From TrEMBL:
One of its GO terms (cellular component) is ATP-binding cassette (ABC) transporter complex, substrate-binding subunit-containing. This is ABC transporter. Residues 3-241 form the ABC transporter domain. The keyword Electron transport does not apply. SMART domains: AAA (SM00382). Keywords: ATP-binding, Cell membrane, Membrane, Nucleotide-binding, Translocase, Transport. PROSITE patterns: ABC_TRANSPORTER_1, ABC_TRANSPORTER_2. The keyword Cell inner membrane does not apply. GO terms for molecular function: ABC-type ferric iron transporter activity; ATP binding; ATP hydrolysis activity. It comes from the Bacteria.
Length: 378
């Protein structure tokens, strides 16, 4: 079993006299790509600055490659940090910036030939044009500068590479390319461990081996992208991933229109239903047939499908698929549901009634009230 490259135990960190990271535990092996996902202000940057040694920890320990660095100076930690905002010297060229970054590695001094080879390699990996090397960072576009800043972080070949919102302020196409680059870099590197922070769930799904969902300084859940997406442990985690975001249904409202679902679902034992919700992803809903006689009621079929009638309130063309807003007709007080369906699979007109179906295996009970989550409007 290889030794963990990063092992954080019970970490707590304070800013401005307040605890902003608390009870944080994370263990990563060499080469793992971890994305910390959370809303603005939840403590993501503070966490990275703590790992890098730029802010003192209040409690807990940080171990890198088996060495406790909790109180080690930042320059002596084998860590690279990409700051949220560019921090490149304006008077240096891109090439000089990369050279200084390599020299900052305390592990080993490189010969001139090795240095050139390292710069050439990172230039290719991050797709930096050779013509940029003699230029100063301010003469590059925001997206180009961000790539140079990432190259500067990676070129040291640190044991732990910390990336703070690497896609910030980059247009969609440039960030698509950058995501691909980062995915390639992490696949090629089995010695560098990545911790990447973002509030973008799609970015997390695209890159991560492990996702840490964070809120208010604490970890809500850790797991692979599919674990977090398919089996979130709370409504808050469920809402962190997926676009459009998931539907959260009030259990008692659903059971009032379809009591048979109560037997099919593993309902929370010994706790009020109101403290939980049923999570339903928009792509799990299918429109199966028009409800021509308007007399179809909610049922559970023998093959494990929940079928229920809806009125189509709204339909939006997303290009290749439709986003629908559906009002359950036998639960009129429930908020509308969001569904995504392939464009060629429906011809439904707004205002018509349909029978929907969902596989019961796609329903998840999650902690948290459906009432506190926003209802869907498109
Ligand atoms: N220098 C500081 N002094 C006092 N409080 C601070 C300082 N820096 C950050 N904070 C507070 O610490 C908390 C966590 O901030 P942090 O920057 O780590 O969050 P974040 O998740 O990275 O946010 P964002 O996604 O907006 O960058 C916030 O409440 C913030 O206001």
């Amino acid at each position: 079993m290889p030794i963990q490259s990063l092992d954080i135990t019970s970490l707590a960190m304070d800013r401005g006299g307040n605890r902003v990271v608390d009870q944080f535990n994370l263990s990563l092996f060499p080469g793992e790509y971890c994305v910390v996902l959370g809303p603005s202000g939840c403590g993501k940057s503070t966490l990275l600055h703590g790992i890098a040694g730029l802010i003192e920890t209040a409690e807990g320990s940080i171990v890198i490659d088996g060495q406790d660095v909790t109180h080690t100076a930042a320059r002596k930690r084998d860590v690279g940090l990409l700051f949220q905002h560019d921090t490149m010297y304006p008077h240096l060229t891109v090439e000089q910036t990369l050279q200084i970054a390599v020299r900052a590695n305390p592990k080993r001094r490189l010969t001139a030939a090795e240095m050139d080879q390292r710069i050439q390699s990172i230039t290719e990996t991050m797709n930096l044009a050779p013509a940029w090397l003699p230029r100063r960072p301010e003469t590059l576009s925001g997206g180009q500068r961000r790539r140079v800043a990432i190259a500067k972080t990676l070129i040291r070949q640190p044991s732990v590479c910390l990336l703070d919102e690497p896609m910030a302020a980059i247009d969609r196409l440039a960030s698509e390319r950058l995501l691909e680059r980062l995915a390639d870099v992490s696949k090629q590197s089995d010695s560098t461990t990545f911790v990447h922070v973002t509030h973008d769930g799609e970015e997390a799904m695209r890159l991560a081996d492990q996702i840490v969902v964070m809120s208010g300084g604490r970890i809500l859940q850790i797991g692979s992208p599919s674990e977090i997406y398919q089996s979130p442990n709370s409504a808050e985690v469920a809402l962190a991933l997926g676009s459009p975001s998931c539907n959260l249904l009030a259990i008692d409202e659903v059971l009032a229109s379809c009591p048979a679902l109560g037997e099919a679902l593993a309902l929370p034992e010994g706790q009020p239903n109101a403290d939980h919700a049923i999570m339903l992803r928009p792509e799990a809903i299918q429109l199966v047939a028009p409800d021509l006689n308007q007399e179809h009621a909610s049922t559970v079929t023998e093959s494990g499908l929940w079928q229920f009638p809806v009125t189509l309130l709204e339909r939006r063309d997303l290009g290749g698929r439709f986003l629908l807003r559906l009002q359950p007709t036998d639960s009129e007080n429930s908020p509308p549901l969001a569904a995504t369906v392939f464009q060629n699979s429906i011809s439904a007109e707004v205002g018509t009634r349909w029978i929907c179906q969902v596989s019961i295996s796609d329903l998840r009970i999650v902690a948290g009230s459906a009432r506190n989550s926003r209802s869907h409007s498109i």
